[in-house]
Structure formats: C-alpha cells, structure tokens
Design brief:
3 domains, GMP Synthetase, Chain A, domain 3, 27 strands, alpha/beta, Rossmann fold, nine-stranded mixed sheet, about 475 residues, 12 helices, about 25% helix
Length: about 475
C-alpha cells in the first residue's frame, strides 16, 4: 500500500484536523478496502480538498485503488470548476458533504465529512502510468494540469523524510493546502515516516491556529515566503513553542533579510531551519539547504535531494561548471512528473519529461556547490535595451526597504506595486539607482494589498 500505510500501527494517528477530526492509519486501510468495492480502477475523480481528515483519507485511498485524482480546492471558483469539468468529464467527485447538496450527483459512499459522488460520465481513457493530477502553480483560468506518474510522490516522500530525518514522533503542522504541491509533500513525507500531521484550515493570524498547534504539540512547520512575512510581523521569535524544533521554507524565494532572521533565530535556540525548493513538475521538492549551512549561505536553496541531480545550462543547453555564472536550472530525478495536460486526450500521453525538468529558473552556484535562484527566465523586461529582472527588483526593494511589493510591466516601463503609503519616491529612487536606469523607467502604484494565490505566491495576472 502507498507509503506502507498497511504496515503502520493501526491505532497510530495519521492526521488530526483543527475541526476535531482524527484519522488513524487503520482508518485509511479500511477506507481503501471499502472504496475498492465501490468504484472500479482507473476512474477520474475530482477531489475537492480542505485540510480535513476526510479529504486526506479519500485521496490516499483512491490513489491506492489506482483511480486518478485531480486535487482542487473545495473553494475553487465555480467558473474554473465548470471549465475543468467540461474539459475532463470526471466520473466521480470526492467532496465535502456540505457541498454535495449543491451538486446534482448521486452519493455512493460517505466517510466522515466527505462523500463520493458519481457523475454519470464514463471515465476517460487514462495512461496506465498516470497516477494523479495537479493544477500548475498560479493557474486560475486554464485547464492546464501537471500529470504525475506512479513513483513520483512516493520517491519524493521517501527522500524528503530522509533529508529531514522524520520519525514516528513528528507532528507536522500543515496549514498549506493539501492540493498545493508543497502541502501535499509535507503530508506525504510524514506519512512515509509513520508520523502524524496536523491539518489546519484557519490562518496564521487566528488565535485558534496557535492554540491548536500548542495543544497538539506541533513539532515542525513548513511555510511559503508570505507565511514567514506574517510570522515576522507576529514577533514569532518571542512565542513560547517548546515542541517546535524545525522550521522549513519553500514555495518561493524568501528575502535575504527574513532568511537570515529565521536562520539565526533557530540556530540560537538550537533548532533547525531548512530552506527548500521545488515545483509542481517535480512533485514538490528538488533541493534543500542543510540547517547547519543556513547561517553561512543566506538565500541558498542548497543542493539536490537524494536521488536527484541539479545542473546549470547556458542558452545553448551546455552545462555550466564554473562557480558564479548564471544559467537555467535543470533537475533530474525520479520525482519528475510526466508532463502537462490541457485536454482530456492528453491524459493518455506518455512520459514527456523522461526524468528531466527544465525549471525556467535562473540560478548560480557558489564555490561550495550550493545553488542560488536569481530570477525567472521569463520574468525579465528589456528597458532601454537593458535586461532587468523583475524578481531581482522585488528582492532589492524588500531587502533595502523591508516593504511588500510586486513588479510587473512591459519593455516600456516597469510597474511596481507597494502597500505602504508615502514611499513612492523612495522606492523609485532606490530602484533607479540600483539598476542604473532613469527614474521615468518606473511607475510606482500604491494598492491596499498584494493579490495572492492560496499558496501565498503573488497573483501577477490580477495585478495586470
């Protein structure tokens, strides 16, 4: 069974959620057996996810039954859900019971607060190696999906559990959505180790969040850059969290200032800070920085996870071996997915990536062999003939002024969105000085909040 769940102690808790739900490893085995008698193999199931034990148990069981789940937020926009439904015609839904009254489908099975609904559609043809589907990061109006094959999430769970040295005693804090690749990986790596995950729906700003993780003795936390920005505002360093021994970051680049703040803080307390990096196309994580290197390699994503390989390539695809030279980051490993799907026929496509993924990230390697992301291949403008990185511009502003910002624009002008009032001129002068471009190359706009996806990443499309 997936992650050898059937070999775990049946009474051990696999998950606890902040609504009072509990899930044992034995419960997952029982559900898997029940679902195998309820629906055939190779059905396409839309799994509408919440961070609840019912959602998790259903996905794990359906995966093990050889059905193919597309993981989606239970709060997904109706228009997008309708588009995905019409594109892929799922044969079943696994959804919160509370949502089943809104859907004209027959309920064929119930487990805790989730139900399995039959749509009446005939399952589309699915490639025999296709194991699951996830939306691409940031997709809001497109049916483009990442197609996983069997072995992807399994290898990533195993190797990440090894990197973090997870044990049976771990209690991983999961506030990242389970339909988000990083959230799912944190869950899977803990279940591989036979540990317990704490599923949280409330946000970091809620008192319930902190009372729940204290009560349940949360031992490790994984957050995206926006999570760390919030923690910093909440004066995280002064909180009394005796059971929390590990902090991990992924899902985007943390500013050097925050990276140093949390690396130093955890080191001073004799605890661990891990920087990690990955993509949906690599089943979440592909690199990590050992905590003992965090205070001396500020901003680094580290090196490849076990069984993986990282290299830099130039514009002609040739490997860059010398330190300090920028190139596109390429990853090879068993966690690389099959490719993309944009229509139902694509679900029959074979493995297009063949274990190699061109990340589209521009990176460099230092003399110690550690990698640093410096920007995105497509996140560049050409202003007055000069190539300017939007990601680097954001980093400059965040590191120098400590303010929230987002950079977009075209080759005529860069648009910089900030949430702090009264700092337009300061931001414009700073970025003009750092880039060597005229101030008129930049327009600064004040907005109330930076729009973000569930993952915490900036929604640049909404800004445009």
């Amino acid at each position: 069974m997936l992650f050898d769940i059937d070999r775990k102690l049946v009474s051990s808790l696999a998950a606890i959620d902040d609504a009072g739900g509990q899930l044992t490893y034995g419960d997952i085995v029982s559900l898997r057996e029940a679902l195998s008698k309820t629906l055939p193999e190779r059905e396409l199931v839309f799994c509408l996810c919440e961070n609840r034990v019912g959602a998790l148990a259903g996905f794990l069981s359906l995966y093990d039954c050889k059905d193919v789940c597309l993981l989606l937020s239970a709060k997904i926009d109706k228009g997008l859900l309708d588009t995905l439904y019409e594109t892929y015609k799922p044969s079943y839904f696994w959804m919160p019971e509370s949502k089943s009254c809104e859907a004209p489908y027959a309920v064929v099975y119930q487990f805790k607060d989730y139900v399995l609904c039959k749509t009446g559609n005939k399952a589309p043809k699915l490639h025999p190696e296709l194991s699951m589907l996830m939306t691409t990061s940031g997709t809001t109006g497109s049916p483009k999906l990442v197609c996983h094959k069997y072995g992807n999430i399994e290898s990533n769970a195993k190797n990440v559990a090894q990197v973090f040295d997870w044990t049976l005693e771990e209690r991983g804090i999961i506030d990242l959505p389970m339909q988000y690749t990083m959230g799912l990986n944190v869950i899977c790596s803990h279940l591989y180790a036979g540990a317990t995950v704490l599923l949280i729906e409330v946000n970091l700003m809620s008192p319930k969040y902190w009372s729940f993780i204290k009560e349940q003795k949360g031992s490790n936390f994984t957050g995206v850059p926006f999570s760390y920005e919030i923690l910093n505002r909440l004066r995280f360093g002064k909180m009394d969290l005796p059971y929390l021994t590990t902090m991990a970051e992924g899902g985007g680049k943390l500013s050097d200032t925050l990276f140093k703040t949390f690396a130093d803080m955890m080191a001073e307390k004799g605890k661990r800070f891990f920087a990690t990096f990955g993509t949906t196309e690599t089943s979440a994580r592909l690199a990590f920085l050992p905590p003992e290197q965090a205070t001396t390699h500020i901003g680094s994503i580290g090196q490849a996870i076990p069984e993986g390989k990282l290299i830099l390539v130039d514009e002609n695809g040739n490997e860059i071996t010398e330190a300090g030279v920028d190139g596109e980051l390429r990853y090879e490993g068993p966690n690389v997915t099959m490719g993309y799907g944009t229509c139902v026929e694509d679900l029959m496509k074979g493995d297009e990536f063949c274990g190699v993924y061109e990340t589209g990230d521009i990176a460099r390697k230092d003399e110690d062999g550690f990698f640093y992301i410096v920007g995105r291949k497509k996140r560049f403008l050409k202003l007055f003939g000069l190539r300017v990185s939007l990601d680097q511009s954001e980093k400059i502003i965040k590191d120098s002024l400590g303010i929230e910002c987002a950079c977009t624009g075209d080759d005529n002008q860069m648009l910089i969105y900030i949430t702090q009032v009264g700092m337009k001129e300061e931001v414009k002068n700073l970025i003009a000085e750092k880039t060597g471009l005229m101030a008129k190359s930049f327009e600064i706009r004040e907005i109330e909040t930076i729009p973000r996806f569930e993952s915490g990443k900036i929604n640049y499309k909404e800004l445009k």
